[in-house]
Design a protein that fits this description.
Length: 96
């Protein structure tokens, strides 16, 4: 079965309060088997918009990635994140 991925681009406007999002999202990531492959760090914007923070999260499947995003736990985190950051997020199916 192909893995699933979140590819997120984020600009945080309030780093201190953004930590509330991080703490609230953690149970959803644990529940759905998330593994962070990239989480901020150095980057180079070659095309398109340059986001301050780029994140790649691996899940056991695209369904797990979908279920995590739409879970009650992550929905609560997303509501917090929207107050302190701007984001774009894609769910992407990997390949074997």
């Amino acid at each position: 079965m192909a893995k699933g991925y979140w590819i997120a681009h984020v600009n945080v406007h309030d780093a201190e309060n953004y930590q509330r999002y991080v703490a609230t999202a953690k149970p959803a990531f644990e529940r759905f088997g998330a593994r962070f492959l990239a989480r901020g760090g150095a980057h180079e914007a070659c095309e398109g918009r340059d986001w301050a923070r780029n994140v790649v999260i691996e899940f056991p499947s695209l369904q797990a990635a979908h279920d995590c995003y739409h879970s009650p736990e992550y929905s609560a985190a997303r509501a917090i994140r929207s107050q302190y950051a701007e984001a774009e997020l894609l769910l992407v199916e990997g390949f074997d």
